[in-house]
UniProtKB/TrEMBL annotation:
This is TetR family transcriptional regulator. Pfam families: TetR_C_31, TetR_N. Residues 13-73 form the HTH tetR-type domain. Residues 36-55 bind DNA. Keywords: DNA-binding, Transcription, Transcription regulation. GO terms for molecular function: DNA-binding transcription factor activity; transcription cis-regulatory region binding. Gene3D superfamilies: Tetracycline Repressor, domain 2. InterPro entries: Homeodomain-like_sf, HTH-type_TetR-like_transc_reg, HTH_TetR, Tet_transcr_reg_TetR-rel_C_sf, TetR_C_31.
Length: 204
């Protein structure tokens, strides 16, 4: 059975995704400023013209890369968080990501540095971070609703703690692999949630 030929739109999507994947790899290795359009295109197996046929410039590619990667991760984690035994499922997810932790942290750090150096990019990064924070907030509200209790502080504030803690713990995992396990983020989140769920709120 012969493979069906891709349509023009499918070919274009495939080209864009290959360019995005190459950019993610090169940004993690060399930084956003250290990877040129030509290098991204060559690594993906295309010409400079193919790059500009899909993206107006590198800035546009950075924005799409940010949105693609954060959306993909958020979809995966959101599905896990609403399923059965979420903490155990999240442990498996983090263990799977552990094999590429250095690359993931490098890319995330590069996107943060890009936002620092390019203020016009900050609202887009903030928007994606807000989506993640809202997901954490919804998960925390759901956990307290199941208990029929109120959180000891606004759920959005608790979500900010969890979200910020995740970044810090992942850097510690990278720096101290012998002392910090792949489960550290989930262990910390579970510890906090257990204590918060058992802390009487001011309204109780």
């Amino acid at each position: 059975m012969q493979n069906q030929r891709l349509s023009r739109s499918e070919q274009r999507l495939q080209t864009r995704n290959r360019l995005l994947d190459s950019a993610a790899t090169l940004f993690a290795e060399r930084g956003v400023n250290g990877a040129s359009v030509e290098q991204i295109a060559e690594d993906a197996g295309f010409s400079r013209g193919a790059f500009y046929g899909n993206f107006a410039n590198k800035h546009e590619l950075v924005i799409e890369l940010l949105e693609q990667r954060t959306s993909r991760e958020l979809d995966e984690v959101s599905e896990i968080a609403t399923g059965p035994a979420p903490f155990e499922a999240l442990r498996e997810w983090h263990r799977g990501r552990a094999g590429n932790l250095d690359g993931w942290l490098s890319l995330r750090t590069e996107l943060l540095l890009y936002a620092i150096r390019n203020p016009e990019f900050r609202p887009r990064l903030a928007e994606r971070e807000r989506v993640a924070l809202d997901a954490h907030t919804s998960s925390i509200e759901h956990a307290f609703a199941e208990r029929g209790t109120e959180p000891p502080a606004p759920a959005a504030f608790l979500a900010l703690i969890v979200h910020a803690l995740e970044d810090g713990l992942l850097f510690q995992r990278m720096l101290h692999p012998d002392d910090v396990t792949d489960d550290i983020v989930v262990d910390a989140a579970e510890f906090l949630m257990t204590n918060w769920l058992n802390t009487p709120s001011d309204s109780q």
